Amino acid sequence: MSSTTTKPLPQAEAAAAAAAAPSVTSSGSTSLPPSTSSSSSERLQMFLENDPKRTGFDPETSWWMNYFRILSGQVTPEGQHHYREWRYRQNEARDCQRCEDARDYLLRYSPIVRFMAEKTEQLGGHRLDGSNIVCARCPARVSPDPGTGELRVVRQGGGFHPNFGILLCANEMRDRKHLEDNLAHEMVHAYDHLRWKVDWDDLRHAACSEIRASMLSGECRWTRESMTRGNWTLTQQFQRCVRMRAIQSLTARPRCRDDVHATKVVNEVWDSCFSDTRPFDDIYK
Asked: What residues are labeled active site?
């Protein structure tokens, strides 16, 4: 979304726009160990084309048989990736409908979503609603890691694009509360873009917005970190979570070389950005 024009993001264009979205919320990754016998491009091609004999996943059989094979250790990590994408394609209509129902509910009843929608509208943007908050299936992106040569499988929960609005990845949403955190995260990016005219190609600008979005959205609250992700410490847990998720999101950007580069940029802007809670008076949750 921008201050002058916001276009709806049609369902058919959502996944393509996600790949180019300036804001990316990473939701996990898988790596295929490097091989000395083939180049990165050859390994990438091999990874993208599922071979049941090599991976153990066979799309010609039922989902429960493949799932049993995964549980019994007969499917490689590569095969598990293909199984996951296969199931997402099968359940796309169901996932998108659930996402849209949850989105509409949150736009009516969620305090943080309603507050952020009001604040972005006050800055001169269009009202954030079903026309510019779109649910779609987001395929994982696979690319070689520049530093290690491993193949990275990057998944995302959503994205923000100044010219289109907010994308919610329906296939990655566990429940309505998870969707609320992701929606609030992207709404912080929309607010930042309108308030400060963020240059999303500048990694320092992007890192600052990622810090603020992870801090203010609620995705790093103690219950989410400890109960869902199994991460908890006695001190500095909230700060660790915000820093880690900002680094993950920055690493997924094409202009970022690797996690070392992302960490350096996040550290450079940390003090000023972590202390900025606008438009809230304090951290909401």
From this structure: 186
